[in-house]
DNA sequence: CAGTAATCGAGACGGTACGTCGTGTCTTATA
DNA sequence: TATAAGACACGACGTACCGTCTCGATTACTG
């Protein structure tokens, strides 16, 4: 725990430009929003970032890995403070998901990344750790708080709840391409909490 | 006057080969399963189908449109007969979804199609009518039967239920790439029906 | 010598349309003039002639053979009546060549046909009999008349003279793409006849 | 300041491979000889040269431009030293033309290039400067020497003489596809010089 | 005057080459 | 050693023509 954990810092030759990284990731997000996944080209990202292709390839092996890192910056901001009750925690989490899934960058990237990852285990691992897990954290922590409050109890499967929350919203927003309004969210959370509440009576799921 | 209003009967020139269509769609599904979406090439589909590239392009403008039609044949087979109760109807529907989502063709194609459709309204319409709607029918019809049986009542939002069912499974199987077992399905249907049952008490969602 | 020498005239079934032949050859010449050799397509010839591709292919095996026949109609009109002297016969023949070589059809077709014929003996034979020989006849007949008049005598090589006349004009008009004016023609015929006249003195070539 | 005014010295990025140029042009000549003009494909040239198609297209816009440059290397070698008299200069020049026109590369390319150039002014300019002019130089220089020797005099039209020499040989060898033997050449040069000699008597052409 | 057979327009078909685009690697000179 | 610039090998793309084929519909001779 000395801080610079990895700290290889082999400082022979010219050091890598930190500005380049920032510019490349920003350009990637901008072009994802403008052009979508299929029409996003490495060459154009480099050009937009004011960087040579070489510089980009020295950092990321290809388009998918680049986009994972670009999107990771957005997903790492997900955070839900304690809202006092499971209901309000749920509403807050769902709200954050919706905001994120409605960004054009996300629309362009998330399903495409998942599709690419189907055949590529190393990519799948990156998507998992940088995109999926940050989302799961919200559900996990809210559930912990609900347990602590005594709102739920018993053996539970947080992953099922996570799939139900994110899956429903992904299906609605990304797969079907339809917007979500307040009414939809209210009903969704209502059915969801009703289901979870029932569990308490029947002794856990 | 039975409904085949179109009556094309365009008898000018050599008619299109029905065998070609069949062979192309079969080759597409086979190669999707073998190679995945990204490594699926039009040229190889044509070669596998024993057909010239031109013949394929005369029917479909590109990879995505071809794959929609190829997958449509699988999704059109979705069907759930009356199982006697909402619980059994739900289990049957979920079972069909799971079987379909676990096919390698589906793993390769579904998310990729949804991703491509993001920027292409005409593709989105095709995906909607040939892939999404056939899935929705199962939920819709099961819900109608449940209403007829008196298991549920009141104004409802079938689309929300549909998003919850398919979204959850898509998230689990396709996005996270994890398998579903009996225990997962049991818990899932249990939470779901608990949520829906609660609605009856509270007078609809 | 029964007249209809070949006379296969197997008259079973619908006879071929004579109008089609005419229309196809005319369309070929028109499109040669408009588009040149490389951009002349069989499909467009057929369309312009108001005829199906099948109809065209039933008569000619390919572009080159079609164009030979189309051009043959122009070259078959070459004719030089007796002008009374070798000088005037030569001027008349050269004038006819120049007129023909300056037609856009000829510019488009003649060199291309000769180039195609390089690898195709059967095409070469057709070009020879339908394009080259009709040109050669002018020189041959004029030379015969000159002999009869006593303007020349001795063993001669009409083919050399033919090469010199047509070759010079082809090089000027088709290969270099430069126009010929009166002055050029006068000097050309002057040098040519001077050379031939010299032969008489030296006893034939 | 020796004349290399252009001084490109564009030292940005990886320089173009000189080996690629050489290999492409050599492959072009080889395949011209093997396959002829019509069956020469860019893809095969690239493959034979061990080069990607892109590399070829970066240098030449199409088949015709490539072939002009490939042939230019052959035509640039034309050279006739002073043979002491117009007769011997003429024989030497004609011999060089004949050797060049009888190469299979030339048979395949020259007429095809001239035909293509018919519709393409920029191609015509290239053919002119890289194929026609190098041939013309032989006639021009021989004529200059003949003037210096006093063998000819007066205003002359070198281009007419050039057309007569090259045109005759092109017509014989390329258009009619017939070989030239010693007898033909002797008669040809004899008639030609007789014609030119006559000019001296009559005071120029 | 019905039968028969080759033609016709139309357009789908298998095939080949095209010229372009994107990828990820490389080779320069410069920093 | 990293960088900008750009050439490079590779492979897929979607298009264009080719020459063949399969249709239904004509159009003449033939029996």
UniProtKB/TrEMBL annotation, chains A, B, C, D:
Residues 41-60 bind DNA. It comes from the Bacteria. Coiled coil: none annotated. The keyword Transcription applies. InterPro entries: Homeodomain-like_sf, HTH-type_TetR-like_transc_reg, HTH_TetR, Tet_transcr_reg_TetR-rel_C_sf, TetR_C. Keywords: DNA-binding, Transcription, Transcription regulation. The keyword Nucleotide-binding does not apply. This is TetR/AcrR family transcriptional regulator.
